[in-house]
Amino acid sequence: MTQPIREGRDLLTPRPVTVKRGVNPHAPGSAHLIMGRTEILATVTLEEKAAPHMRGSKEGWLTAEYSMLPRATNDRQARERNLQNGRRHEIQRLLGRALRAGMDLRYFRNQTLYVDCDVLVADGGTRVASILAGHAALHDFCDRLIQKGRLTDWPISRNIGAVSVGLVGSEIRVDLDYAEDKVARADLNVVATSDGLIVEVQGGAEEGVLTHDEYVGMLATGTRAVQDIMADLTRQLSVIQGM
């Protein structure tokens, strides 16, 4: 049976991802990432100060912040900096855990890395796109440190990516846009490495329950999709880097 086409892609194909790094002249690392119609600006800041809970540790710390601009969606939203927003804090913790999983923070002892991810345009998948953008901004940051001679070794230990996977009816779909996400009866955010190792899985059933086979199928599909996305993203970062 022929699978329905959505925006020129089949059910298991992620939206196209394009990235441009070094877009913010004031930040030591930055990236603008577009995934379908979702757009994220990510910047990296290095603070010469250990996080309070990391004092005396042999490693530095990485933390992430996430925000959605007022007109990232169809209707204006109040600026999140003024709100106690549980969703935003949940996403920030996910971003921090995901990005820390890819960094060797021994290179940043007594220092703190801040990765700020701002949603410029939202059309589904903003948290997974933010992980991709954050990874690209860290790549830009680390490349600049090496070019300046401040580091001799590459501190990104793993290439970390993410994708959303949904169950619409009985169909597994990769990288849902907003219209698909609204009708999905289950969705997962799969964070994984470029070689297929799982970092974190977030999500579950929206309506009713999932079978074991459905859950395992969604997870396997998401892991393969992350590998495809990261292969493409790595190529783009390498071309930009001039390798």
UniProtKB/TrEMBL annotation:
It comes from the Bacteria. One of its GO terms (molecular function) is tRNA binding. It is an enzyme of class 2 (transferase). Phosphate binds at residues 87, 125-127. It catalyses: tRNA(n+1) + phosphate = tRNA(n) + a ribonucleoside 5'-diphosphate. Residues 15-141, 160-224 form the Exoribonuclease phosphorolytic domain. Keywords: Nucleotidyltransferase, RNA-binding, rRNA processing, Transferase, tRNA processing, tRNA-binding. InterPro entries: ExoRNase_PH_dom1, ExoRNase_PH_dom2, ExoRNase_PH_dom2_sf, PNPase/RNase_PH_dom_sf, Ribosomal_Su5_D2-typ_SF, RNase_PH, RNase_PH_bac-type, RNase_PH_CS. The keyword tRNA-binding applies. SUPFAM superfamilies: Ribonuclease PH domain 2-like, Ribosomal protein S5 domain 2-like. Its EC number is 2.7.7.56. GO terms for biological process: rRNA catabolic process; rRNA processing; tRNA processing. Phosphorolytic 3'-5' exoribonuclease that plays an important role in tRNA 3'-end maturation. Removes nucleotide residues following the 3'-CCA terminus of tRNAs; can also add nucleotides to the ends of RNA molecules by using nucleoside diphosphates as substrates, but this may not be physiologically important. Probably plays a role in initiation of 16S rRNA degradation (leading to ribosome degradation) during starvation. Belongs to the RNase PH family. Homohexameric ring arranged as a trimer of dimers. This is Ribonuclease PH. It comes from Deinococcus soli.
